[in-house]
């Protein structure tokens, strides 16, 4: 019987300790510093004289445990029960046990299993204990109990002891073996005091990397041109979640595409009057199957025959160059401060002079090009260039120039007139440039 008891104790301790390493990670529960349990206790027992046939005792228990670590506590328990007419002699029995020992608990779960091994004393009274040729009505003995059970946690303060099953061994005199083996079953309420939240941190959910998304739009400031002119097209691409490298491809119904990247032009020389389209495609360099497309319509009209001096002949190259020089002498670039699209006083003076010149030459169409220096992202500077071109256009309109004579386009930092990393060079690139647009 001693070997069976030792095996049972070691099995309970070993299994419970192994389970205690595997917290379920319930963050709603508490491992208390102290727990107190009170409840009903039933015992299937034997007693003097002569051992079984067994009988039943009904009573209660009081237990308290102090946690050393989450899974290990020191437990103290007292039980008490009474049985009447336990043998042919008609004697009764009051049985009290007081014991203490280690308890192993699988904490951090709604259902908390535990195992324990307790050692102490037992005292019987109001009964018959034979001692040789005489007897006594009370006696004491060592007590050894081992077992386990289940607690159900209601909240951080209360739990229900749903089951507590223990083997109890005593050594009262009974005129025979002086050894008794009992089965105790209990249930009750557990009250928890103090303690700390106990849970295994939930694993951090790893966000699945989703394929990048591309938005791609394109536009032209010259949607209608005369045959022979150039259509300028700008593409605006954004990738999510990151700004990734892109490859651009362009096609047109007719004409010759000039350039590559986000900004291209289409030469319309030799094209018949009519409606056409430029189509663009932006694809990830790292994943060419991830792409977005855009489309820009444009119209080509017939070019009227230029007349000079009533002779029916076109302007000569020398005359065109001279008119271009005169234009730039009177319509000069507007310069801007760093990261700003506000018209400065010097730019305001230049635009006022340009407005007077353009008013005197109502046949001149103007293309306003917005630029930025090379600091900052390409996308940001493309937007900043558009703001500068728009600000210059608004300033000319305030001088009385009709808006249909003014077209705008942004090159951002794509076309730099100066490439040195100096403030003087950067200032030359922060501008709205004006050119005659045929």
UniProtKB/TrEMBL annotation:
The keyword Transmembrane appears for this protein: yes
Question: Which of UniProt's keywords are assigned here?
Answer: Cell outer membrane, Ion transport, Membrane, Plasmid, Porin, Signal, Transmembrane, Transmembrane beta strand, Transport
Question: Could you tell me what this protein is called?
Answer: OmpA/MotB domain protein
One GO molecular function term of this record is: porin activity
- Report the main location listed first in the record: membrane
Identify its membrane topology class. Multi-pass membrane protein
What organism, scientifically named, is this protein from? Granulicella tundricola (strain ATCC BAA-1859 / DSM 23138 / MP5ACTX9)
Q: Signal peptide: which range, if any?
A: 1-20
Q: What Pfam families is this protein classified in?
A: OMP_b-brl (PF13505), OmpA (PF00691)
Swiss-Prot/TrEMBL GO biological process terms: monoatomic ion transport
Which superkingdom does the taxonomy of this entry point to?
Bacteria
PROSITE patterns on file: OMPA_1 (PS01068), OMPA_2 (PS51123), PROKAR_LIPOPROTEIN (PS51257)
Q: Where in the cell?
A: Cell outer membrane
Per the record, its GO cellular-component terms are: cell outer membrane; pore complex
Keyword Cytoplasm tagged = no
